[in-house]
Design a protein that fits this description.
The protein contains four helices and 15 strands. By secondary structure, the chain is α/β, with parallel strands linked by helices. The protein has an eight-stranded mixed β-sheet with strand order 3-4-5-2-6-7-1-8, with helices on one face. A four-stranded antiparallel β-sheet has the order 9-10-11-12, with no helix packed on it.
């Protein structure tokens, strides 16, 4: 996200918010599900009637909620008011990144971080006439779009949530994950009833159910990915939580010659076993 030609600014704030950016991936038809996931996180962290600003790159980015049974849209001259049936106390409004300049909200959700022509960055924004008046420092890949994305991310007083398709992430999202190790996880509200359990490797993230796109199988992965790459292939450990007394990981039910027993998911590194009840 950094343009080396830009002047460096030392910005300081009296307010500190750990983990101010969270990236939520979604399946091709799961954008609404990812939005509900972000709102759930906001509601968990902010019990009062918080103001939430949805920000997109284009006026039509919010249209995916048209006809939804969970959301109602009301278009005004000030933007689009969004009412969530599940999170009715939240005051939600949609604006484009351009119209959000100079505004603030308790939380921000960027809803179109997609790698496509009308995504963010918008690939239709390259105007040859604009290039004639740009300074040398502006000739950096997607310079104006980067500034606009920065505007969108910094409209928040607390956290910014970025929704992105898992298989087609915005290049800006890819850079955030790689350069700043922003935690990335996939929203699977409708496909999982599993509890999130503490990660036994980094002790910061939580193991969440995810889907392997290559074979469609479920597994548990750390929410602190890519900082932590801990995975467990057996999702049953989240249904019946049995900590391993030897290594601190989790144990899963296995079948042996003399009946069922619990074995550590770190096998063969850890060969701890216990009897099943």
């Amino acid at each position: 996200m950094k343009n080396k030609r830009q002047l460096k600014k030392d910005l300081k704030s009296k307010k500190s918010c750990p983990g101010p950016i969270e990236i939520i991936g979604h399946m091709p038809n799961g954008k609404e599900e990812a939005l509900e996931n972000a709102l759930m996180r906001i509601a968990d962290k902010d019990k009062r009637s918080a103001e939430v600003l949805l920000i997109g790159r284009n006026n039509f980015d919010v249209d995916f909620l048209e006809g939804s049974s969970n959301f109602k849209l009301r278009r005004t001259t000030q933007g689009v008011d969004v009412k969530s049936r599940k999170y009715a106390d939240l005051k939600i409004r949609y604006l484009t990144a351009h119209r959000s300049k100079g505004l603030e909200a308790d939380h921000v959700i960027i809803i179109n971080a997609e790698n496509c022509v009308t995504g963010f960055p918008n690939k239709m924004a390259d105007d040859p006439l604009l290039a004639l008046v740009m300074t040398k420092s502006d000739h950096f890949a997607n310079a104006e779009e980067r500034r606009l994305f920065y505007v969108a991310m910094t409209r928040t007083k607390n956290r910014t949530y970025i929704l992105t398709p898992d298989a087609n992430k915005s290049i800006f999202v890819e850079e955030l994950i790689k350069a700043f190790q922003i935690p990335y996880d996939i929203a699977l509200l409708k496909t999982t009833g599993l509890a999130e359990i503490p990660c036994p490797k980094c002790f910061v993230g939580r193991l969440q159910e995810r889907i392997n796109e290559q074979n469609g199988t479920a597994f548990l992965g750390c929410s602190n990915y890519p900082v932590c790459d801990k995975t467990i292939t057996d999702t049953r450990v989240a249904k019946k939580i049995v900590p391993c007394p030897a290594c601190g990981s989790y144990m899963t039910l296995r079948k042996g010659k003399y009946g069922s027993f619990y074995g550590c998911t770190n096998y063969p590194t850890c060969q701890q076993t216990t009897k099943s009840n």
